[in-house]
Amino acid sequence: MTVTDDASSAPAVEVRGLVKRYDKVEALRGIDLTVQRGERFALLGPNGAGKTTLFSILATLRAPTEGGARVLGLDVVAERDAVRRAMGIVFQEPAIEQRLSGRDNLLLMGLFYGLGSAAAKKRAADILGELGLAEAADRPAKNLSGGQRRKLELARALVTDPKILFLDEATLGLDVDARRGFWAQVSALAAAGRTVFFTTHYMEEAEVADRIALIDAGRIVALDTPRALKARIGGGVIRLKTDDDGRARAWMTEQGLTPEPGGDELMLVHADPAGTLPDLLRHLPVKVLRVEIHEPSLEDVFLKLTGRGFGAAPRAAERAGGKVAGRREVNGGASA
Ligand SMILES: Nc1ncnc2c1ncn2[C@@H]1O[C@H](COP(=O)(O)OP(=O)(O)OP(=O)(O)O)[C@@H](O)[C@H]1O
Ligand SMILES: [Mg+2]
Fold first, then answer.
1. Domain endpoint, select from 165, 191, 225
2. In the prediction, which pLDDT does 313 show?
3. Are 131 and 155 spatial neighbours (Cβ–Cβ below 8 Å)?
4. What is the pLDDT of residue 209?
5. Keywords assigned by UniProt (predicted)?
6. Residue with the nearest Cα to atom 18 of ligand 1?
7. What is the per-residue pLDDT across 248-286, written as a single tens digit (0 to 9) for each?
8. Which one-letter DSSP state was computed for residue 140?
9. Residues with Cβ within 6 A of ligand 1?
């Protein structure tokens, strides 16, 4: 399946000065972002950073408070219906109708988007085949496996044959095999020229993106290729947890080492982590509870920029009275 580009050369997504306030919570605080057509673009950040809010505005489900956004050149407010027809979205929360079969879910979606009954039937059959969901065709969605249900969400997003796909934590909670299967489908869709704009809490999923925006408390704090983001660290990483991190930090600083500020553990960037670690462990005046060495990960970059990991809640001063989202483990990546 290939995607023919339309005449317009507008970027896939253009966001300018976007602010979103929910009552007292400032969920987005001035986002500027351009996603090119055909890009696989990831949005990465901790719980409550504003990822779903941004997607819900791009998908025309919420209106911006200030600023604006265009999807494939179409204004998300003024051209809402056209945007809806042009994009597909897999939500963080289930959107399929659990009592309906896989096929009927897709038929319903096709009819909703104005396909005739015969066209909707053909489209449903084609997508079920393409995504390897034949088994799901005639069973109620609630009786499918978690992986099949997520694929059905993807199938639902594909009914309109969108040029751009928004995936908001589309694989959350799936096991490694099911996630791999899901991303194989997404890769095929991307290879056919679709833009894929996604969020994930799984670092290894973000690594496949062409570019990544790191988002924190409603602001983009860095935007680059995964490789360039990690190169910002400038060395290997030692992570340490001790029985007295304050004392360990002070001691390291005395020794001319410069641990990164903040974080639940000590992070030290060093040109030769393996070479320096034995000496460090021998001389540290505190008990080391845990230690690891790794190549820089995306979470390290985030920690260096913001002073905390993806699992930590935003600092009170940055929340403007907003509720604090719960902690979540960041799976995969070098620190797993
Ligand atoms: N309908 C709402 N009313 C009030 N506040 C909201 C609403 N939706 C989201 N928020 C708040 O806006 C902020 C951003 O939430 P959002 O869901 O966009 O974050 P997220 O990056 O998607 O987080 P997660 O990784 O947990 O999915 C949070 O502080 C959240 O509590
Ligand atoms: Mg979210």
1. 225
2. 53
3. yes
4. 95
5. ATP-binding, Nodulation, Nucleotide-binding, Transport
6. 50
7. 999 999 999 999 887 788 999 999 999 999 999 999 999
8. B
9. 22-23, 25, 27, 45, 47-53, 92, 322-323, 325
Give nearest CA residue, ligand 1 atom 12.
Answer: 27
Assess whether 220 and 300 both reside in one domain. no
Residue 126 domain boundaries: 13-225
* Average pLDDT of the chain to the nearest whole number: 88
Closest Cα to atom 28, ligand 1: which residue? 48
Both 177 and 206 in one domain: the answer is yes
**CA geometry: angle 36, 39, 40, nearest 5 deg:** 140
Domain count, the chain: 2
From the CA of 213, the nearest ligand is 1
Domain boundary (177, 194, 225) is at: 225
Question: Which-ligand-closest: CA of 56?
Answer: 1
Residues 286 and 162 grouped into a single domain: no
Residue 163 CA, ligand 1 centroid: distance in Å: 27
Are residue 179 and residue 275 in the same domain, yes or no?
Answer: no
Contact between 107 and 121 under an 8 Å Cβ cutoff? The reply is: yes
Residues 149 and 94 sit within 8 Å (Cβ to Cβ): yes
Q: Which ligand neighbours the alpha carbon of 326 most closely?
A: 1
Local confidence band at 333 (pLDDT 50, 70, 90 cut-offs): very low
Q: How far is CA 109 from the centre of its chain?
A: 25
User: Is there a domain that residue 38 lies in?
Assistant: yes
Q: Give the residue ranges of DSSP H helices in 78-233.
A: 80-86, 102-112, 117-130, 146-158, 176-191, 203-206, 226-231
Beta strand pairing call for 266-270 and 236-242:
antiparallel
Whether 331 is in a domain gets the answer no
Claim to verify: residue 132 and residue 114 sit in the same structural domain? yes
